[in-house]
Specification:
The chain is mainly α. It has a single domain, classed as Orthogonal Bundle (MetI-like fold), CATH 1.10.3720.10. Helices cover 78% and strands 0% of the residues. The protein is built from eleven helices and no strands. Helix 4 runs parallel beside helix 7 and helix 10 runs antiparallel to helix 11. The longest helix has 38 residues.
Length: 267
């Protein structure tokens, strides 16, 4: 009788709790429809080729870049600057963010400084970085580092602040030490915010590398776009923009894979 009553009172969940489901074909289908409409508009004259060339012309420009061997030179230059600046800014920003989140004295000293420097447009500081570090690689890497540092700091200590304090008190009640609490409770709890910050800082890094290469570079995707724009070669310009989009998609895919691997504990 008791079991029957328990079954009668049991209420099942309706719906999936707003959990996202993978729908694999929708994204590529939307992309293909847009590209097909773009191509049709360019071929029928609805879209002027001087304003926006057909996707097939941009693909032809990419093929020419590949055949000439310049593609790998531009990619290597941009990727080396991007990786060095982004990795340095992410690591340094993560450490500073953790320190702000864990130590009250550090928070009191650095949190106002981060809040004051973060809104400054980093592109506007490029001439200053060129004066400080020269027109070579150092100024470009420093600009990317500076640009990715602050969002990483903010997302990291925001993630630390959002960790459930009940879990921390529970760890203290079970006798866990400070390092164990940080490693087993705080870092896993802050990891979703840290990975979200990596997505944002990657987009900022791509914007900054293009800005730096537009002004002071002979090689790189930004320099390629600058040359194409000065020559009114819109097909080459669109090809360069497509390469930047591939950069962003690749990094987004890598971070998504890291989330699946590192956040398997989430329901």
């Amino acid at each position: 009788m008791t079991d029957t009553r328990e079954r009668a009172r049991r209420v099942h969940f309706r719906g999936g709790g707003f959990a996202p489901r993978p729908v694999r074909l929708v994204g590529p289908a939307v992309f293909l429809v847009l590209v097909a409409a773009w191509e049709a508009g360019a071929r029928t004259g609805v879209i002027s080729p001087l304003v926006l060339p057909a996707p097939s012309e941009a693909v032809g420009a990419l093929v020419e870049l590949w055949v000439s061997g310049e593609l790998w030179e531009h990619l290597a230059a941009s990727l080396s600057r991007l990786l060095l600046g982004w990795v340095s800014g992410t690591v340094l920003g993560g450490l500073i963010g953790l320190a702000i989140g864990l130590f009250s004295l550090v928070r009191a000293g650095l949190a106002p400084l981060v809040a004051a420097l973060f809104p400054i447009p980093k592109i506007a500081l490029l001439p200053l970085f060129i004066i400080w570090f020269g027109i070579g690689e150092e100024s470009k890497v420093a600009l990317i580092l500076f640009g990715t540092l602050f969002p990483t700091v903010i997302f990291t200590y925001g993630g630390v602040d959002n960790v459930d304090r009940t879990l921390i008190r529970m760890g203290q009640s079970f006798g866990l030490g400070w390092f164990s609490i940080v490693r087993k409770i705080i870092l896993p709890g802050a990891l979703p915010a840290i990975l979200s910050g990596m997505r944002v800082s990657t987009a900022i890094a791509i914007i900054l590398i293009v800005a730096a290469e537009l002004i002071a570079a002979e090689r790189g995707i930004g320099a390629y776009i600058q040359i194409a724009g000065s020559l009114f070669a819109t097909d080459q310009l669109i090809a360069g923009v497509a390469l930047l989009s591939v950069f962003g998609l690749t990094v987004n895919w890598m971070i998504a894979r890291a989330e699946r691997l590192l956040l398997r504990w989430r329901p």
